[in-house]
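Running low. Any example?
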Amino acid sequence: MSVVAAWLPFREMEMRIDNLSPAMRTVVATGWEPSGLSVLEAEDGEAYHRALYRDGDTNKPVNWHKNSVEKLIEIATPYIADGALVVDYGSGTGGSAIELLKSLDERGLRVELFLIDPLVSWFSKARDILGSRDDVHFELSTKRDSDGKTSFRRLQEILDGRKADVIISSSTLHLIPAKTIGDLALQFADSLKEDGAFVWDSGDLESELRPVSSALLHDPYRAVRELLRNDEVRIGRLAEFADGEKEGHERRLDRIFPTPLSIEVILEALRGAGFSSEIHDKVVSFSKEDAESFALVPRLSEIASPLQIGNERDEAIRAALKTALKLIADEGKGDDAGYRSHWVFGCHRLNE
């Protein structure tokens, strides 16, 4: 999707003349820009964007994305005033930022929005879509040292010591390793104003709140991974690996959709960082069609590796997903149309 097409939902925004590019006469975002993006990386970002928006049209969010992120925005909006500094931690292709900006534009509120993410392929798509807005700033959350080692930048460094009014994080915390959650919570606390708020959502955390009639967001894709683990063709391809490579390859695939954390891991870390907690939940329907689009995003479809990219991999995933969704429906957590995913939402303020 072109930048022009993606920009249509925001065309009524009043543009500030001082930030117009003299060459293009268009408003430009600041911060990180992609460089040397490969065709495969571009396709990955486009595919995930289309898993969130029907035909890539930002006016047409798919049901699960719309119904999950609207609750996040509903919780965060009361803490966002005109001129606020808002951080979107784990922005991906910009899905939560797009919906937040739509909501703020409708209210006539202008903010300074920092988008932060480590994944170049997806983050490049966010830049493609939102790069024409002068109220958006992009920061890659990783860096390389002189030895070429990659590490995560601290939030305080990214913000250059500034304090945010609101930090949001959509569908990200369940991907953070349990051993690092505590430190990340401290970073959030150190990067918020005293009256600020940290608001997040996740569809893939274990919780006593989850109704028995609902699944976790990634349950179908973990099932696909297990169904394909012993697929004859895949096993044959694995046999071609050199000694020692197979185990590392399989561990990497298991991390794509990791075993879900308990919500208590998140809440304990936030309490330790000095936050109070307010938790909400919601069941969001996920259609079979949307589940397939999600599972076939190149980065996520790696769960079927080393099946060959293309028809071999895609058809194997489709067949396994059909089986997985039927199993979930048989457990009473879905039906012929798809499955029901349970989402939790957290709103946290610094204790006085």
Q: What stands out?
A: DSSP finds 13 helices and eleven strands in the chain.
